[in-house]
Design goal:
heterodimer, A: six-stranded mixed β-sheet, about 0% helix, about 55% strand, B: mainly beta, seven-stranded mixed β-sheet
Chain lengths: ~110, ~110
């Protein structure tokens, strides 16, 4: 079974500053994907960034980057130059390669303070 | 492409009733998954449909059932509603079970 743990229920950051959200996971799989999703009050899950486990290079998408530590089963999200629109719930998720379901963590509520 | 549309956005039902939630996927998205998101929790996988056949199910009882139609729409049916079924129900679709899923904005179901 796969589990995803987000140990920070709530976080806040000043606008323009940098914040890091933590995620750990447990799996016996070797081939899988990891994701960070953003869920604003509109409720739609929006993909922030995706990492393939077989790639050693950390994924980056503009202001968003990850620190993927496969041996430690850790997958943190760094948001640089935080903006008010980044305020949302952030979910870490796992999917086996060729799998049919996401395994989500319990989420981190991020508030960007003006 | 018009994204993933779910209806209704909100719904209130009485315990013991039945409910049908609908999802309209993007053209070409032959894979649809349904998730239940209880308040303060991450989404939990209910089941997936691929080319109109069930392709995996999470830890949900048989009173949760689904259908997928050739026009890329799908339904989630829940019978004998219980108070604990109150949640946000999300659908997500993709092409050929790849991991590029698009989520809808969900249906908020309240059971009283």
């Amino acid at each position: 079974a796969q589990t995803v743990t987000q140990s920070q229920p709530e976080m806040s950051v000043q606008e323009a500053e940098t914040v890091t959200l933590s995620c750990t996971y447990d799996t016996s799989e070797n081939n899988y994907y990891l994701f960070w999703y953003k869920q604003p009050p509109s409720r739609q899950m929006i993909l922030v960034i995706r990492q393939e486990a077989y790639k050693q290079q950390n994924a980056t998408e503009n202001r968003f980057s990850v620190n993927f530590q496969k041996a430690a089963k850790s997958f943190s999200l760094k948001i640089s130059d935080s903006q008010l629109g980044d305020t949302a719930m952030y979910f870490c998720a796992f999917m086996k390669r060729y799998g049919n379901q996401f395994y989500f963590g319990t989420g981190t509520s991020l508030t960007v303070i003006p | 492409e018009t994204g993933v549309t779910q209806s209704p956005t909100h719904l209130i039902k009485t315990r013991g009733q039945q409910v049908t939630l609908r999802c309209s996927s993007q053209s070409g998205h032959n894979t649809v998954s349904w998730y239940q998101q209880a308040l303060g929790q991450g989404p939990q996988f209910i089941f997936q449909y691929y080319r109109e056949e069930e392709n995996g199910r999470g830890n949900f009882p048989p009173r949760f059932s689904g259908l997928q139609f050739p026009n890329y729409s799908s339904e989630l049916n829940v019978n004998a509603l219980e108070l604990d079924d109150s949640a946000l129900y999300l659908c997500a679709s993709s092409t050929d079970r790849d991991y590029g899923y698009t989520f809808g904005s969900g249906t908020r179901l309240t059971v009283v």
